[in-house]
Amino acid sequence: QLQLVESGGGLVEPGGSLTLSCEASGSSLELYSIGWFRQIPEKEREGVACISSNDDYAYYVDSVKGRFTISRDNAKRTVYLQMNNLQPEDTAVYYCAASTLSPKLCVQYTGFRRDTWGQGTQVTVSS
Questions:
Q1: What is the distance between the alpha carbons of residues 62 and 108, in angstroms, rounded to a whole number?
Q2: Rounded to whole angstroms, how far apart are CA atoms 84 and 75?
Q3: CA-to-CA distance for 108 and 28, rounded, in angstroms?
Q4: Is 125 in contact with 88 (CB distance < 8 Å)?
Q5: φ/ψ (deg, to 5) at 67
Q6: Residue 34, CA distances (Å) to 15, 25, 110, 112 in order
């Protein structure tokens, strides 16, 4: 079974940048699309970006297009989320998850099992 651990969050000022990492262990990372999701208290978790298993296609929600870049290095068993021009509304706990869906469907999917989600990594954008 694939296990994912998020890291790289922190406190950054508006306009700043962060790179999140999602490190995999267990099963083969290259079999899965990997998505980044985020959640703020009392709101539903939302998809942010997802990348295909063979790294040939990525999908972003409109709110992060042009600012966030998802990438993967299957040899290092890691998926990244480069976040530029961060804004206060990007403040959330960020999670990664594996999916067999295409990236566009992966981002929109809400049926992940509860045990899919790890601790996540907190991103706070504030001056």
A1: 12
A2: 25
A3: 23
A4: yes
A5: -115, -35
A6: 26, 13, 14, 12
Judged on CB neighbours under 10 Å (0-12, 13-18, 19+), 39 is middle
Q: Which residue has the tokens 């942010």?
A: 48
What residue type is assigned to position 87 of the chain? Q
Handedness of CA 40, 69, 6, 103 (dihedral sign): positive
pLDDT in tens, the chain (127 residues): 889 999 999 999 999 999 999 999 988 888 999 999 999 988 999 999 999 998 889 999 999 999 999 999 999 999 999 999 999 999 999 999 999 999 999 999 988 988 888 899 999 999 9
| 8 Å CB contact between 1 and 118 | no
**Total Cβ atoms within 10 A of residue 108:** 14
